[in-house]
Amino acid sequence: MLDWNDLRYFLAVADGGSTLAAGRALRVSQTTVARRIAALEEALGLTLFEKRQAGYALTTAGEELLEKARQVETSATRFAEASSALTRDKRGTVRITTQEIFAVTLLAPILRELHEHHPDIIIELDDSQQLRDLGEGEADIALRSTSSEAPVGVVGRRLSIDDWTLYCSREYAAKNGVPHTRAQLKKHAFIGGGGPKLWHAYSAWLHDLGLDDRVIMHHASATGMLSAIRSGLGIAVLPCVVADAEPDLIRCVPPKAGHGRFMWLLTHERVRQTPRVRVVIDFLYEKLAAHIRMLEAQREASAA
């Protein structure tokens, strides 16, 4: 079969008049040039050069194919230039999907910084409660909590354990104290909700603790629960990666162990090397990982 790379040797010999000159131009040995020309002639079933004492001269067939070979060379050069431009081009839209509470608290300041560094990248942030399918192209990047294996083709980086636990505000604690035991929790007001998926697990936890009758309000999202906690209304469950960074919030009890959920930054292998997606996912990972390291250092200092 024809090796298109051999056209480079054909053109170099045609231009230089010898395999020696072609070898110098291509930075290969004269033997390599002669071997590639022979391979090309065999693949085509044509003699392209007459081998003379003064060098290589094009045959009639070689003369007829020379311009076609130059057109191939021009097309290959344009192809390489276009692909190189795409590799460098970081402009365009990147779609990120995550839970609303992560979008509002974790990602908002990071995306401001991202825009400052890469103003040509447009972010579409989807914080709906629907799970977007990366494989179907419904989003480019997902910041997601999961305990299951990633679907085929989805790749990513694990950020941290996704712990959630109960929090109250400092104002609430000053008026009502901070509950640390099941008996103490039964004397406090709870904010429920957080959306169907979160409420399914959250309500089961409250039921196990015998706190069903202590829920005084329901919010449709975890962000709503965060707002209610900040107001001093009561206690609710929040992600530790968010709440531990809030100076006005206090943990009431340790996170539930053994849940097996982790925070992941995910994308699909189909788009992972797209320059703008690569820029965004690397930027997000660097900033989120730094945030998590800061929280871990604070916890260690508090425990010391």
Q: How would you describe this protein?
A:
This protein is 48% helix and 21% strand. The chain is of the alpha/beta class. The longest helix has 29 residues, at 60-88. The radius of gyration is 32 Å and the shape is rod-shaped. Helix 1 (6-16) packs across helix 2 (19-26), helix 1 crosses helix 4 (60-88) and helix 2 (19-26) packs across helix 3 (30-44). It has helices spanning 6-16, 19-26, 30-44, 60-88, 100-117, 170-176, 182-185, 196-208, 222-230, 240-243, 275-303; strands at residues 49-52, 55-58, 92-98, 121-126, 141-146, 154-161, 164-169, 190-193, 215-219, 236-239, 249-251, 262-268. It has eleven helices and twelve strands. Strand 1 and strand 2 form a beta hairpin. The strands form four sheets. Strands 4-3-5-12-6 form a five-stranded mixed sheet, with helices on one face. Strands 10-7-11 form a three-stranded antiparallel sheet.
Describe the strand arrangement of the main beta sheet, using strand numbers. 4-3-5-12-6
Give the H and E element order: HHHEEHEHEEEEHHEHEHEHEEH
Q: What is the average per-residue confidence, as pLDDT, rounded to a whole number?
A: 90
Beta-strand fraction estimate: 15-25%
| Unreliable stretches | none
- Helix count equals 11
Termini gap:
71 Å
**Integer-rounded radius of gyration:** 32 Å
Q: Got a strand count?
A: 12
The percentage helix is 40-55%
The structural class is: alpha/beta
From the spread of the alpha carbons, the general shape counts as rod-shaped
Major β-sheet annotation: 5 strands, mixed
